[in-house]
Specification:
Elements: E1 17-18, H1 20-34, H2 36-46, E2 56-60, E3 65-70, H3 72-89, H4 92-97, H5 99-111, E4 135-136, H6 137-156, H7 160-180, E5 182-185, E6 188-191, E7 194-195, E8 201-202, H8 225-231
Antiparallel strand pairs: 1-2, 2-3, 4-7, 5-6, 7-8
Helix pairs in contact: 1-2, 1-3, 2-3, 3-5, 3-6, 6-7
């Protein structure tokens, strides 16, 4: 079981609490590679007890909401973990057992897609802060990566048309990110951290959802001029 808690004391308000991001993005990859059985158990918890409230700021270990607020990176987290599990273990039976969860997660992501921009929205950033910039760059890149994962999951489930559509949507999202979330600053093109959908871009870094992660996520190369300008 994976959970984050700075204290197990009942006097502390986030005692024994669960975050999709912390469990499925930060902790799960290492657990999967060193203890696949425990990783499978943790993933089953994310796709079972926690599934109904996936993406909500924080929950208790029994899945009940602790703090509200939708976070896009957390909505993508279980998809990323399940796709990683499949690629690492080849355990197609586990994916079959959780086909309803795959559908739920795909529908959740689709429900926050903005038809005008092609970007995906978030109420809060990766620091759990409400933002007036609903289009967060790293969170959208995580969705881009999750869509590729969904394509692999759909193929295991025999859904070739759904897999092809997920791949096509990943391509559309990549284009939308580069169109709306890259800005001109001091004569150079660089990534903004977010955008309000009108005229204001967020020019800062949000450490838990840092723009420095973009190469590690496979979105750009480390020597990509836009990324170099951003990091500088």
């Amino acid at each position: 079981m994976l959970f984050r808690s700075t204290s197990r004391s009942p006097r502390y308000f986030v005692s024994a609490a669960y975050w999709d991001r912390d469990s499925m993005i930060w902790s799960f990859p290492g657990l999967l590679r060193f203890d696949p059985a425990s990783a499978r158990e943790a993933l089953g918890h994310a796709l079972g007890t926690q599934l109904a409230n996936t993406g909500i700021h924080s929950r208790f270990i029994d899945g009940v909401v602790l703090e509200d607020g939708f976070q896009l990176d957390q909505a993508a987290a279980p998809v990323l973990a399940l796709a990683d599990y499949l690629a690492t273990t080849g355990d197609t039976a586990f994916v079959e057992r959780h086909r309803d969860a795959v559908d739920h997660l795909a529908a959740l992501l689709a429900s926050v897609r903005d038809a005008t921009t092609g970007l995906y929205t978030s109420w809060q950033d990766a620091q759990d802060e409400y933002r007036r910039h609903p289009f967060l760059t790293t969170a959208n890149v995580l969705v881009w990566k999750a869509l590729a994962g969904l394509a692999a999951l759909h193929r295991v489930l025999g859904r070739e048309a759904a897999a092809a559509e997920a791949e096509a949507e990943a391509g559309r999202l990549r284009a939308a990110i580069l169109r709306h979330l890259v800005i001109d600053r001091d004569g150079r093109r660089m990534f903004a951290a977010g955008w309000d959908g009108a005229g204001d871009h967020l020019v800062e870094d949000i450490p838990p959802g840092s723009l420095f992660r973009l190469p590690a996520l496979g979105f750009v190369a480390e020597d990509d001029p836009v990324f170099v300008a951003t990091s500088e």
